[in-house]
Write a structure and sequence with these properties.
Oligomer: single chain
CATH superfamily: Nucleic acid-binding proteins
CATH class: Mainly Beta
Number of helices: 2
Shape: globular
Strand order of the largest sheet: 1-3-4-6-5
CATH architecture: Beta Barrel
Distance between the termini: 68 Å
Order of helices and strands: EEEHEHEE
CATH topology: OB fold (Dihydrolipoamide Acetyltransferase, E2P)
Helix content: 10-25%
Length: 132
């Protein structure tokens, strides 16, 4: 077969033997004004925490009603978009889940973070007064 006309998927594309996918979609409210940080590498990242309500099924197993997930914007376009968010804004985000590690005063620590691919505002719910 001529390699130029091959129908084989690219090396990073999942095949039937490899169905692993790291894709997260969350909808919730921004907890506080996003914060920009300049890393020692010179990269800039803008992060915020997203408050996501737990499902009724999950609330039956735990008293915790919400999860708070850190979200990070690395690209210039996403950093500009995320900087415009305010506390309480409803958004839907997509991205890849990451587990981050650091060493704190009490030893190694880790947390879960979403590296954003998209961050879109959710439409505002219709006002109850509009249905008169």
């Amino acid at each position: 077969m001529n390699p130029d006309t091959s129908t084989a998927p690219p090396p990073d594309h999942p095949t039937t033997d490899q169905q692993s996918v790291n894709l997260v979609r969350l909808s919730g409210r921004v907890s506080a004004t996003p914060e920009a940080r300049l890393l020692p590498s010179g990269d800039e990242v803008v992060s915020f925490r997203l408050i996501v309500p737990r499902s009724a099924t999950a609330r039956r197993r735990s008293k915790q009603r919400v999860d708070t997930i850190e979200c990070s914007a690395w690209t210039a376009r996403l950093r500009r978009s995320v900087r415009r968010l305010d506390a309480g804004d409803a958004v839907t985000v997509t991205g890849e889940l990451r587990r981050r590690f650091t060493r704190g005063a009490s030893g190694p620590m880790s947390w879960v973070n979403v590296d954003l691919a998209t961050c879109e505002p959710m439409p505002a719910p219709p006002d109850a007064d509009d249905g008169r």
